[in-house]
Each structure stands twice: as C-alpha cells, then as structure tokens.
Amino acid sequence: MSAAPGRALTLSVTDCARATGLSAKAIRRRIERGTLDSVLVDGQRRVPIASLVGAGLLIQGLGRGERGVAAGQAQPAAVLARLAAQRQRLAEQVAGIGDLEGDVRRIAEQLRRERARCRELEYELVRARQRISELERRPAHLSGPSAHRPS
Predict the structure, then answer these.
(1) Which of 19, 24, 72, 131 sits most deeply, having the most CB atoms within 10 A of its CB?
(2) Is the Cβ–Cβ distance between 19 and 72 less than 8 Å?
(3) Whole-model pTM?
C-alpha cells in the first residue's frame, strides 16, 4: 500500500487480489475493461482503494482482521456478519408486518359490524319516517285522545 502526500491510498494488483479475494488476472481484466480505475506509479499499475470500494469489491470501514490474515479472507466473515444482522432486522420487520395484518383484520371485522349496524339504523329511520307520514295524513278526529280539543 502506498500514499504520497495529497494522494489517495493505492494497492498493487496483487494486493487488490488478496484484499478482494479475486485473482490478479480478474483485477487486471477489470482495469482493462475500464470497470476499475487504476493509476501508473513508477511503472507499476496501482488501484486506489476508493475505486475498490466504489466497485463494490471492498466494504469501506472493514479492517484487515487478525494479524497475518489478508483482508480478502477476513472480509467475507464481516460481510456474513452484516448479512446476519440484516436478516435479523428483516425477521423483526416481518413479525411487525404480521402484527399489522392482524390489526387490519380486526379493524375490517369491526368496520363490517359497524356497517351492518348502520344499515339497521337506516332501516329504522325509514320506518320511523313512514310512520310519521302516516300520522300526519290521518284526520284530526281520528288521532285519538291526544288530538286538540276546543276550549
């Protein structure tokens, strides 16, 4: 790894292969295709670490692991740990979705009951209006004891 003052950290093709778990040939092919940036330093092809991160070959912020273990070997374990954490979060979210689905079913059932009660009340209202209309059409002398009497 090298870094001149004011320059990005770079790795040789061999170091990139060790760090990413790819072969040196695969790194060179990516450079040739232009999918991985590189620079020529003192006649040697070097790849900026930021380019490896940008290409998704390294995860930013992961350390090298234990002494003597190349980052390319330690990195899959870190990726697996992150995936396990994401899986746990997804499982919790799925459980939360299950709770929400139960809430939606309960609310839908309550809404069904409320709509049925509303239809019953509307029917009662129609019947009451019909009864009022019948009573209003009835002549006063047939209305019974509650009819107006002359004083």
Answers:
(1) 19
(2) yes
(3) 0.39
